[in-house]
Amino acid sequence: MSLIHLIAPSGYCINQQAAARGIRRLEENGHQVVNQQAVTRRFQRFAGTDSERLAEINHLVTLPPETDIVLAVRGGYGASRLLENIDFSRLGAALRARPQIICGHSDFTAIQLGLLAQCGAITFSGPMLAGNFGAEEMDENTWHHFWKALREPEFTVRWESDAPAVHASGTLWGGNLAMLVSLIGTPWLPLIEGGILVVEDINEHPFRVERMLLQLYHAGILARQKVIVLGSFNGATTTDYDAGYTFDEMRKNLQQRLKVPILSGLPFGHEPQTVTLPVGALAQLQHDGKTAYLTVSGHPVLRERR
């Protein structure tokens, strides 16, 4: 079983009960969970002061070799405040010497993309302690796919998507859309050519999603990709004022501007059921117009216990 080291680089974990449930669930399945003090640490709205949270990230290079997984407690906000002082050079050297499983999503996307941009490190966009492992009922698909992605050097994700057929291969990257957009013009946004860009978000009305995607479009980032994949965009509802302007209409409008195909429907993001994707890995996408198959490889995997 795995040794899991918790980190909390973003917001304070307001749902302490969920975090405790997540730790208990992991331990009941035979895993050891360390650095649990990160869960209760707090300064204002953050999971500790900037210096405390920064030290936790920079000290990843000193973790004992038996550490298997580095798992974010939750998202929120706070990772952006750390970027300029993260020692990406040392982290990159340590991860090249001993690849590590680092997993999280939401606000943590900023650090994940920074690691990819600065040192080519592949991390996993997937479940976090409180929101996923600490859910009242753990989604079986989320649990199963998390361990599959971390254990198998090659795996395939399948989902239904009504879009033109496409076959493409490239670097798989992305994560939370708002965090990705916030990195435009900074050293922490990877310069990916011919990639497969997967994005997701929560509590964003379709017009806000469109505005962020248009920013990527106007910056030339979308046109440089081979495929755009839209994950989960839940938590926002349209009103009478929208008069038929839905998420699907927004997607169609964006597709008219782009030559790059846009697929939707991937169960990925702020949902109980989400797949786990390695950010920076190699990917092949095959879509026949109805069903999409995303095959991923080249990512770090859990080491065999002896």
Which regions contain 5 or more consecutive residues with pLDDT less than 50?
A: none
Average of per-residue pLDDT values? 97
Biggest sheet record: 7 strands, mixed
* Strand order within the widest beta sheet: 6-13-12-7-8-9-10
> How many strand elements?
13
SSE sequence, one letter per element: EHEHHEHEHEHHEEHEHEHEEEE
What is the general shape? globular
Structural class: alpha/beta
Helix content: 25-40%
Helical run tally: 10
Q: How far from one another are the termini?
A: 11 Å
Q: Which range does the strand content fall in?
A: 15-25%
Cα-atom Rg, whole angstroms?
Answer: 19 Å
Write structural notes for this entry:
With 306 residues, this protein is an alpha/beta fold. It has helices spanning 16-28, 37-40, 50-58, 88-97, 109-119, 129-133, 140-151, 177-182, 206-218, 247-257; strands spanning 3-7, 32-34, 69-72, 101-104, 123-125, 154-160, 166-176, 196-202, 227-234, 262-263, 277-279, 282-287, 291-297. The strands form two sheets. It has a seven-stranded mixed β-sheet with strand order 6-13-12-7-8-9-10. Strand 1, helix 1 and strand 2 (32-34) form a beta-alpha-beta unit. Helix 4 (88-97) crosses helix 5.
Write a short abstract of this structure.
This protein is of the alpha/beta class and 306 residues long. The protein has ten helices and 13 strands.
Helix-strand blueprint:
Layout: E1 3-7, H1 16-28, E2 32-34, H2 37-40, H3 50-58, E3 69-72, H4 88-97, E4 101-104, H5 109-119, E5 123-125, H6 129-133, H7 140-151, E6 154-160, E7 166-176, H8 177-182, E8 196-202, H9 206-218, E9 227-234, H10 247-257, E10 262-263, E11 277-279, E12 282-287, E13 291-297
Parallel strand pairs: 1-2, 1-3, 3-4, 4-5, 7-8, 8-9, 9-10
Antiparallel strand pairs: 5-11, 6-13, 7-12, 12-13
